[in-house]
Design goal:
CATH topology of the domain at 2-198: Cyclophilin
Pfam family, one: RRM_1
Distance between the termini: 125 Å
Radius of gyration: 53 Å
Organism: Choiromyces venosus 120613-1
Number of strands: 18
EC number: 5.2.1.8
Shape: elongated
CATH architecture of the domain at 2-198: Beta Barrel
Largest sheet: 8 strands, antiparallel
Strand order of the largest sheet: 4-5-7-6-8-2-1-10
Family: Belongs to the cyclophilin-type PPIase family. PPIL4 subfamily.
Strand content: 15-25%
CATH superfamily of the domain at 2-198: Cyclophilin-like
Structural class: alpha+beta
Subcellular location: Nucleus
CATH class of the domain at 2-198: Mainly Beta
Helix content: 25-40%
Length: about 475
């Protein structure tokens, strides 16, 4: 029957319970651990090389503390808050790591009672505690944790300045049945406000004896600011956590709504060269938000403008100037540079991670596809089009331009037709249309008879006729 106590960064402690010698005290301790009653209980009453005490969920320093209660007091009411533990004569505080219930005198002078608080010894041969603390277990693992608690820096009441608390209790073996009404929580409960109010210095904070309260508060604020900056960096609102606003940009507020960028540029240009001057305006309406940012080329010019322009009257408004705390320009520059690097890397890899795919893509261009019927509207890479274009051009050069050939041939045919018409007109002379028609019919008949005679003389035709 064992219980594991987790003490956070201090370490863990494993306690073996002496069920045969102190069954009632062991049952009370086990059931309180099962209900997570000891969670976030502080370590107090630390006495070097003697013992330390715990078990009060809030701590004895809090006015809201009642000193703790037994498991029966939690289930049956305040009348059962305390119980009489067992004092076995064979159990003595002879070795370090002895675990015993803290007791107090009861109504009977010969009886002592306990609640939830228990003691763990950090020294040997402590017979002073015999008969005053009821032993019910012993530490079997975690003696280095006991040594850390024994050497902790404490105040006059034995309370460690750096919090040491029971974070979790884990039951390794429980031989007792649960009493009626006991409900084990599904998870460890959240610390109450009363418990959080007793925190002095967190476990993750370092103690320095020479630090004054102002220095400690400044250190706490710096730590909190760094944590917030890291959060903004993770969500992308800051380019990096240690970013600082530029020292050459001046913030101007309390402006008159009628003041324009050119007015501020003219007024502040006497201190030095101005790179940009912008009055911030509403995106929807375009109205001035009555503050502006002025970026100087030189930091000294910005500082001089800060000292000289405080409270100056501009357009019946006394302005207020301060150094800019905005890092938006740096953020935009960082984002642009980062995006450019990503784009260059993507272009270097090509389409789909391959340069070959980049060469072979063919897209239809919507604007050019609506032209002439001969234009397909496809866009090809220059290297793919150059070779066939040069080949066709060289062939055209050898034969001459196609358009010139067609044009010359057409003119020659027209001249031949004109010469034919002239010869025909000379041959016909002054004959009438009817005579010319009869003459043309006669020519056709003579041509048909000539073709028949030629066919009848051909021996191949006679052979074919005899065959078929």
């Amino acid at each position: 029957m064992s219980v594991l106590l987790e003490l956070g960064e201090t370490g863990d402690i494993v306690i073996d319970l002496l069920v045969d010698y102190a069954p009632r005290a062991c049952e009370n301790f086990l059931k309180l651990c099962k209900m997570k009653y000891y969670n976030f209980s502080p370590i107090y009453s630390v006495q070097k090389d003697f013992s330390f005490q715990t078990g009060d969920p809030i701590g004895p320093d809090s006015p809201e503390s009642d000193g703790g209660s037994s498991i029966w007091g939690l289930l049956e009411g305040p009348s059962k808050r305390l119980f009489p533990p067992e004092f076995h004569p064979k159990l003595k505080h002879t070795e370090r790591g002895t675990v015993s219930m803290a007791t107090a005198p009861g109504r009977d002078p010969d009886e002592r009672v306990s609640g939830s608080q228990f003691i763990i010894t950090t020294g040997d041969e402590l017979d002073y505690l015999d008969g005053k603390a009821a032993i019910f277990g012993k530490v079997v693992e975690g003696f280095d944790t006991l040594e850390k608690i024994n050497n902790a820096f404490c105040d006059g009441k034995g309370r460690p300045l750096k919090d040491i608390r029971i974070r979790h209790t884990i039951i390794l073996e429980d031989p007792f049945d649960d009493p009626d009404g006991l409900a084990e929580p599904p998870q460890s409960p959240v610390p109450s406000k009363a418990q959080l109010a007793t925190v002095r210095i967190g476990e993750d904070e370092e103690i320095k004896e020479d630090d004054d309260p102002e220095a400690a508060e400044k250190l706490r604020r710096e730590r909190e600011a760094r944590a917030q900056a890291l959060t903004l960096e993770m969500v992308g609102d800051l380019p990096f956590a240690d970013v600082k606003p530029p020292e050459n940009i001046l913030f101007v507020c309390k402006l008159n709504p009628v003041t324009q960028d050119e007015d501020l540029h003219l007024i502040f240009s006497r201190f030095g060269t101005i790179l940009s001057c912008e009055v911030i305006r509403d995106k929807r309406t375009g109205d001035s938000l009555q503050y502006a940012f002025i970026e100087f080329e030189d930091q000294k010019a910005c500082e001089q403008a800060y000292f000289k322009m405080q409270g100056v009257l501009i357009d019946d408004h006394r302005i207020h100037v301060d150094f800019s705390q905005s890092v938006s320009k740096l953020s935009d520059t960082w984002r642009s540079a980062t995006n450019a690097k990503r784009q260059n890397a993507a272009n270097a890899r090509g389409f789909g991670g391959s340069n070959q795919l980049e060469k072979r893509r063919q897209y239809r261009e919507g604007n050019k596809s609506q032209g002439s019927s001969g234009n397909t509207g496809y866009l090809f890479d220059k290297e793919d089009v150059r070779r066939p274009a040069e080949t066709s051009r060289s062939k055209r050069d050898d034969r001459g331009p196609k358009s010139d050939r067609h044009r010359d041939g057409g003119r020659e045919r027209e001249r031949e037709r004109d010469r034919g018409r002239e010869r025909g007109s000379e041959r016909d002379g002054g004959r009438s249309r009817r005579e010319r028609s009869l003459s043309s019919h006669g020519r056709r008949d003579r041509g048909r008879d000539s073709w028949r005679r030629q066919r009848s003389r051909s021996p191949r035709r006679h052979h074919d006729r005899d065959r078929y």
